[in-house]
Write a structure and sequence with these properties.
Number of strands: 10
Strand content: under 5%
Structural class: mainly alpha
Mean pLDDT: 96
Distance between the termini: 11 Å
Shape: globular
Largest sheet: 4 strands, antiparallel
Helix content: 40-55%
Bound molecules: (2R)-2-(alpha-D-glucopyranosyloxy)-3-hydroxypropanoic acid
Low-confidence stretches: none
Order of helices and strands: HEHHEHHEHHHHHEHHEEEEHHHEEH
């Protein structure tokens, strides 16, 4: 890549981050996502650290402002905008005693990338400033892990259970869609039988900004809405969810991120000369051990928390085991070449899957977030050549288009989803600076 191309990429990415700046946080995109999202802001801070380290800290501090009293980081912190397709009225966060005062949030969480972001920002600080930064972020990070392992590990297995696919960050990912097959609301099923489920598209707000065939299908989206409404009635309480037998998934993607975040929290504690609570330390050991149980025939899979059965529906989550530090178990050779890397990799769903759609959200497209995590994972397990190759191909894919898109087709790199997407911008900046 020429230095002129690099310069242009950095400039475009910087412009997007500036345009999406909400003051003390950054929205993921101009219209489709006009609020603050938890894991988006973590990736955004990882990019912003190269442009303005104070701004990167502010991004993470604003997440702490929205953190719940019980330690949960909500997946959305709402701004003033009323644009979003599942806005504050759908959540009613103020009716939960643990929600923050005077801030409207969602009432579920999202992938735990916060520890990673703290460490990445810390890397660019002097030792003294890094320790002060760690000191400031230690308690929020610790509280989050306490919440994860006390509230979301109901069977005490060291594996976090998710209640909704939005928590996984990969909304319509095939393993979750398979779990939800029997959960589709009756009225949606009726429309499906009559082959007129497309009519639901008239009721949705998200397709005002992005073409419907690049977003979750109408049936899938209304199933997600239905589940969120049911969970609200159960107050998002895991024990009540278990009694009602609503879906409960030990999500491989989320748990891989949690494992790495456990390592970050432990290191931060060590740097500060602190000792983590003994119960949490035990959970971390158990988590490391239990993750192995998600492994079978060259892949890692999500698991149904009720019956312990692996959900054998391929998804990019399998490669996150590398990011969690598991060099063995997943077949690394799988990454290269179709079905995961036809022209651009890594597809979020392989071409061989019945779910595969090259330009549809998490059912095929290449995303910068997942590629960034896999590149990091490959380096962790000493596969430096493949890591460099993926890094280069990711940057080439973005550079071939004008702008910073939400996701890209693995077949030809054509852009899809919303333009001016913040984490694509932030992670391009990070990949270029850490090349
Ligand atoms: C629901 C903001 C978020 C990302 C998710 C992505 C998408 C929201 C939506 O956008 O989800 O949280 O409305 O579809 O799937 O990963 O954090 O960019």
């Amino acid at each position: 890549m020429t230095s002129a191309t690099k310069k242009k990429l950095i400039q475009t990415a910087t412009n997007v981050l500036q345009a999406n700046d909400l003051g003390s946080s950054t929205k993921p995109s101009p219209n489709l996502y006009p609020h603050q999202w938890f894991w988006d802001s973590c990736f955004i801070a990882i990019g912003l650290r190269w442009l303005d380290i104070e701004r990167a800290k502010t991004e993470l501090r604003s997440l702490v402002k929205g953190q719940w009293k019980n330690g949960m980081f909500p997946h959305i912190i709402f701004s003033e905008s009323d644009e979003y397709h599942f806005g504050p009225k759908k959540w009613r966060s103020h009716s939960y005693p643990d929600s923050p005062d005077n801030i409207e949030t969602s009432t579920m969480t999202q992938p735990p990338v916060f520890g990673e972001a703290i460490v990445r920002v810390g890397e660019l600080l002097s030792e003294k400033d890094r320790l002060a930064w760690y000191e400031e972020m230690y308690q929020p990070l610790l509280n989050y892990h306490q919440w994860l392992y006390t509230q979301r590990d109901p069977y005490n297995r060291g594996l976090i259970s998710l209640l909704h696919p939005w928590e996984s960050g990969l909304d319509n990912t095939p393993p979750w869609m398979r779990v939800l097959t029997n959960y589709t609301p009756k009225r949606v099923k009726a429309l499906e039988l009559l082959h007129i489920e497309y009519m639901l598209n008239y009721l949705r707000k998200d397709t005002k900004h992005v073409s419907a065939d690049e977003r979750p299908s109408p049936s899938d989206l209304f199933t997600l809405y239905h589940l969120a409404d049911d969970l609200r009635r159960l107050k998002y309480d895991v024990q009540t969810v278990i009694k009602s037998r609503l879906p409960l998934v030990e999500d491989v993607f989320f748990n891989a991120l949690a494992l790495r975040s456990n390592q970050h929290l432990s290191n931060i504690a060590k740097n500060l000369g602190r000792t983590l609570p003994v119960d949490l330390q035990r959970k971390f050991v158990l988590a490391q051990h239990s993750f192995e149980h998600l492994k079978d025939s060259g892949n890692f899979w999500s698991r149904n928390a009720y019956n312990g059965k692996l959900i054998k529906e391929p998804s990019v989550g399998t490669f996150l085991s590398l990011y969690a530090g598991f060099g063995s178990g997943v077949d690394i050779a799988l990454i290269k070449g179709s079905p995961w890397w036809p022209v651009y990799g890594v597809a979020t769903t392989p071409m061989t899957s019945a779910f595969f759609k090259p330009r549809n959200y998490w059912q095929g497209p290449v995303w910068l977030s997942t590629n960034w995590l896999i590149i990091d994972g490959l380096k962790r397990v000493q596969k430096h050549r493949l890591a460099r190759e993926l890094q280069q191909s990711t940057l080439d894919m973005v550079a071939a288009q004008n702008g910073m898109f939400e996701y890209y087709s693995p077949l030809d790199g054509s852009p899809a989803g919303t333009p001016s997407f913040s984490w694509t911008s932030a992670l391009v900046i990070d990949l270029l600076n850490s090349a």
